[in-house]
Amino acid sequence: MAMTATLAEAGAREQAKRMYDRIAGVPATDAELDAMLAIMDANDDNITDSDADAKAAAELALDSSGFYNVTLKNMVTPWTNEEQTMFADLNDFTATVIGLVRDGDDYRKVLYDDVIYVGASGSLAAYSNGSNQHYVDLEASGADMGDTNVLERRSQSSVTGLQSSATAGVLTTRAAAKAFFVAGTNRAMFRFTLMNFMCRDLEQVQDTTRTPDRIRQDVSRSPGGDSRIFLNRCIGCHAGMDPLAQAFAYYEWSGEEGTEDGQLIYTANQVQAKYHINADNFRYGYSTPNDQWDNYWREGPNSALGWDSGLPGSGSGAKSMGMELAHSDAFAECQVKKVFQTVCLHEPTTSADHSQVSSMVTNFEASNYNMQTVFTDAAVYCRGD
User: What is the domain partition of the chain in residue ranges?
Assistant: First the structure.
């Protein structure tokens, strides 16, 4: 693993302090620093510790409640709202990510598993499909979400009543539905999933060479009376996005945009009306009949996203589509970059940074996609910053 150029400028105790601060988001106690230094075998300011020792020391910070209640909560919360702000209440989306990281599970399940994490205490408001109060109470309690007696894993279907085949990790949580299934055409859910889990917005995956046969009727083929706009711009996003977003055809949010009211609605085998709005914009366009999705981006320039050759590239519903995204190389690289920025406090910019990201991706995959590995790798690399 590469070291930063400034590593030698920081003494061992300062390195331990930085690793702890960056992971836990709160200062370490003297006892915690002493424990880290003992592992690093560097009880003076000489840099004698190996990266392996430093990583073992950094793992102590994973036991801090600050890692779960502060660092992870602040990193993930912007993914749960269109404003992309961290100044929002804890919710089922964020809690589920925290739980998957805490338990060292295969993090790819975040987009397709029948899983949700809920507060275990009976003093909290009960989980409700129509309210976020359960998580507001959990956050207000200040309890350590790194404790399995505080935040517990459950099957999403047993908690929400959604049939297991319709669950798709955080994509079918109440928070995600409230933010991205409300009003609109459900393309928002696809766009923000792409941004949050593959680090690409639609402009970055435009490909005008894909077949436009699945573009919905609401997309004008001559916007402003100029068909060139459709051929040179609109088709670039919609030709690939619409066949993938079809996976969400049976999902809806019952509340009004901008309000706290509402819940996720799922109508098996019945396409939501929003998929047929503005059909007269181009009545010869695609009329969505079901939730069958296809990944047209497996060919062309977006094949560089590294799709899993062991998957078929098509299927029905959000669960299999979430797996398609989560099993891509772009997903793994994106999660590593997000952790790198969270821990190192800057985006990877230098050649050494990019080499480190590649190394972290390799380690992430080798650990069966355990996100704890990514945090400790980043902390070790940036301990001299």
Answer: 7-63+330-381, 68-166, 181-326
